[in-house]
What we know:
This protein is an alpha/beta fold. The chain has 2 domains: 7-98, Rossmann fold; 99-203, UDP N-Acetylglucosamine Acyltransferase, domain 1 (3 Solenoid), CATH 2.160.10. It has 4 helices and 24 strands. A 7-stranded parallel sheet has the order 7-10-13-16-19-22-24, with no helix packed on it. It has a 6-stranded mixed sheet with strand order 3-4-2-1-5-6. The longest helix has 12 residues, at 16-27. The protein is globular and about 60 Å long. The relative contact order is 0.09. The mean pLDDT is 96.
Amino acid sequence: MTAPKTRQLIILGTSAFSQVAYEYFTHDSEFEVVGFSVDRAYLNANELLGMPVVPFEELQSHFLPHEHWFYSAVTYTGMNRVRTRLYQEAKDKGFKPASYVSTRAFVWKNVALGEHCFVMEQNVLQPFVEVGNNVVLWSGNHIGHHSKINDHCFISSHVVVSGFCEIGASCFLGVNATIANNVALGKDCWIGPGCLISKNTNAGEIYSIDPSGASKVSTYRYFKVQE
């Protein structure tokens, strides 16, 4: 059953993430989405999902700040800088930052969760975890005990952050990345899909592994089937 709607929400952005955020807020939170907003330069439609889309520069002209919450539904574009800018500027306009935590996430009772966070289903946040402001935890991650995720990070799906780790501000962790116990990532690191990080990193480092390549033998030949 959907929670009673007690707060009105504006979603910043019109991307796929914005549409996903609309679904989660609408069907699994106390927020009622009443509109979308983007920078005027990116305004190419006046409506999305039956809701108005208004220029971000004119947000106060369409919605009263003291009556509305916002969520900046932007991914890790520009090492999270775009989401962070909209989050900070919307606060400066007087709007209140909203968070979403899935009812299907496991968040231990003493987890410290900052504002303007998005925690999707099947995330596990163990005891004594700290999560900063403006953090996205996509679906299915494990955040180990006594670990800290600093502000403005984006953690994609099925990432394992082990115990006693610290993830620096504005980091991106790709699908299936693993951070070993007692490891600290510097700020602004980009950890690619499938990477294993077992030592501390410096700020601004990129880690990646070579993508899988196609075999020289086709499936048709290997399994002896017809095309």
